[in-house]
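Page 37, continued from 36.
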């Protein structure tokens, strides 16, 4: 059911689905002290609410994508969003830490289902020459959640309580179910027996480089993002963390807009540019006087990366795109979980000053792989 124009209503529904997944994942960081006090656990223990969400997503994406590959796509999308409604409802009313963590894990599983669907769904909603732009519209939910959703949720949590905030996400999810039913067309799943196995998908030319870039780029970003407040304290700018993150968020929104405008013609150039901008931002962070410039370049570089990687994976994998997307989602969340752990080790061993340099060093092999993809005949970074 493709048309020659983009269809705003169903694409906006998918954007909202992306928004909900990221907001549900990141919101505990904004209301951590209140959740910790209410559930009678320490803040480090409460912080694992973010980790267990990522673990649920990483564990679920590939096996659930395989198990539901024959399901009709709309049915699967509705199931994933219903999982968010259920998990956030339990989170809002739970009075025990253990039950809250179970709900967070279920939310992560729901995210694994939804994230494995979104890029492929967006591509199927658009004509071939606009597929990259369609994915960019859907992926705009990520920076919008980080730049607007999390601050708004934090403000609401401080004003009326963190439980109301999670209840509000449930309300959005329920409204989204109706929106999807009304506007999003249905598509068939893969015919039984036609799903390409993981190893065969990884051997498709171009897929492994995309997965490598996903793992290393997201690892570099997560190390820096998770500990940015700690680093700013280290350089004497601890009181400016909210402003630095706002600059990053605004630049990320601008990045997703620029990527959406040009991705269908310049995917490879955009990916190289994003990597260079990130590397330069990491290097500039070393200088306290250039922190805001670095945050802007960081946002410009990283904001469009989810769209670029999802598009590259789909183009490289072809008929195995759904499997490749599930692999990408898994590695993305593995990198997020590993970033928190590795960053903590770095902090203890080398101090906060090591974070920018670590991100810079990790960006170098990413740039090499992207440039090699640019020079090869493989359908990687085409455009």
């Amino acid at each position: 059911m493709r048309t020659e124009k983009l269809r705003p209503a169903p694409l906006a529904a998918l954007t909202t689905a992306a928004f909900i997944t990221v907001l549900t994942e990141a919101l505990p960081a904004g209301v951590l002290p209140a959740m910790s006090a209410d559930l009678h656990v320490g803040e480090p223990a409460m912080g694992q609410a973010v980790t267990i969400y990522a673990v649920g997503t990483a564990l679920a994406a590939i096996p659930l994508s395989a198990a539901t590959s024959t399901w009709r796509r709309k049915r699967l999308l509705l199931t994933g969003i219903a999982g968010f409604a259920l998990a956030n409802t339990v989170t809002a009313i739970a009075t025990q830490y253990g039950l809250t963590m179970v709900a967070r894990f279920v939310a992560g599983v729901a995210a694994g289902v939804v994230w494995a669907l979104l890029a492929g769904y967006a591509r199927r909603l658009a004509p071939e020459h606009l597929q990259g732009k369609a994915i960019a519209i859907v992926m705009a939910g990520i920076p919008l959640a980080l730049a607007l959703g999390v601050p708004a949720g934090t403000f609401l949590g401080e004003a009326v309580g963190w439980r109301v905030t999670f209840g509000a996400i449930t309300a959005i999810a329920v409204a989204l179910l109706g929106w999807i039913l009304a506007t999003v067309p249905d598509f068939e799943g893969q015919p039984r027996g036609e799903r390409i196995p993981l190893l065969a998908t990884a051997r498709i030319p171009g897929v492994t480089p995309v997965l490598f870039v996903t793992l290393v780029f997201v690892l570099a970003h997560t190390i820096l993002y998770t500990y940015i407040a700690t680093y700013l304290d280290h350089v004497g700018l601890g009181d400016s963390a909210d402003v630095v993150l706002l600059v990053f968020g605004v630049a990320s929104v601008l990045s997703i807009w620029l990527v959406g405008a040009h991705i269908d013609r310049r995917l490879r150039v955009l990916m190289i540019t994003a990597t260079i901008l990130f590397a330069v931002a990491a290097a500039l962070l070393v200088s306290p006087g250039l922190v805001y410039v670095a945050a802007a370049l960081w946002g410009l570089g990283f904001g469009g990366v989810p769209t670029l990687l999802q598009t590259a994976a789909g183009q490289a994998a072809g008929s195995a795109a759904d499997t490749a997307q599930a692999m990408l989602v898994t590695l993305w969340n593995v990198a997020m979980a590993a970033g928190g752990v590795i960053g903590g080790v770095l902090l203890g061993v080398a101090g906060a000053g090591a974070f920018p340099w670590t991100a810079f060093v990790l960006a170098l092999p990413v740039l090499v792989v992207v440039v090699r993809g640019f020079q090869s005949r493989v359908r990687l970074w085409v455009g």
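The chain has 16 helices and no strands. Flag for discussion at group meeting. The two ends are 24 Å apart (CA to CA).
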